[in-house]
Amino acid sequence: MTLNRYRGTALPWLRRAAAPFLGWKPSSLSLLAVATAALAGGLAAAVRWTTPVLFLGVSALVILSGFWDALDGEVARQTGRASLRGDFLDHVLDRYADLFLLVGIALSGFADPALALLALVSLLLTSYMGTQAQAVGQGRMYGGLVGRADRLVILAVAAFLEFDWSLPWPWAPTRPWERFAAFGVHFTVLDVALALLVVTSQWTALSRAVRTYRSLPPAP
């Protein structure tokens, strides 16, 4: 996981950022994270009937959702309120946040709905393999090519580029699927991001499955 390697470096900054929220319930921050992701998904869907400029808001809200998601665990640890119930709730709400965001992108008209569906299934498989390892006594597994933070950054950057490339430049394409027509292909920046999520998430899910299988004792 690319960004997880820098967790130690970012931890002091996260502790400072969490300081103003120590009086909050960690579950409130988790709910705020999923609500922000739902708003990002709604804004992405609204692009279909309004203007691609809304992708700028989508990008900002995706980052903000990730920020709230990082804070809930830090607040729980600093205030001694970390619990199995809170961890479970956090993972459930994360999956709903992924659902809201990807459904919104699928409805935006700037992404192939089939790719968005494959990306959603791939993300769910990644999470499932991690929890399934825990279910068979191997502990929660977080390894792989990409983590949730990486996925949010990929989607945020793609949404920002989709906004930027949709400005009324003289040479701007009139339809989203003409973005790369000069190269003989027809897809958008969001399509590229979704395809990347499908490949990396499937690789992560399969690698977790293989590691879990190999760690289990053989049948007698």
Which structural class should the secondary elements be placed in? mainly alpha
The Rg value, from CA coordinates, equals: 19 Å
Q: What is the number of strand segments?
A: 0
Strand content range: under 5%
Helix percentage: 55-70%
* Measured distance between first and last alpha carbons: 35 Å
Instruction: Work out the count of structural domains.
Output: 1
Task: Write structural notes for this entry.
This protein is mainly alpha-helical. The protein has 7 helices and no strands. Helices cover 68% and strands 0% of the residues. α4 runs antiparallel to α5 and α6 packs antiparallel against α7. About 4% of the residues have low confidence.
Question: Quick recap of the structure?
Answer:
The protein is mainly alpha-helical and 220 residues long. It is 68% helix and 0% strand. Helix 1 packs across helix 3 (54-78), helix 2 (26-46) packs parallel to helix 4 and helix 6 runs antiparallel to helix 7.
List the SSEs and their pairings.
Blueprint: H1 7-18, H2 26-46, H3 54-78, H4 84-107, H5 113-135, H6 148-164, H7 189-215
Keywords:
7 helices; 220 residues; mainly alpha
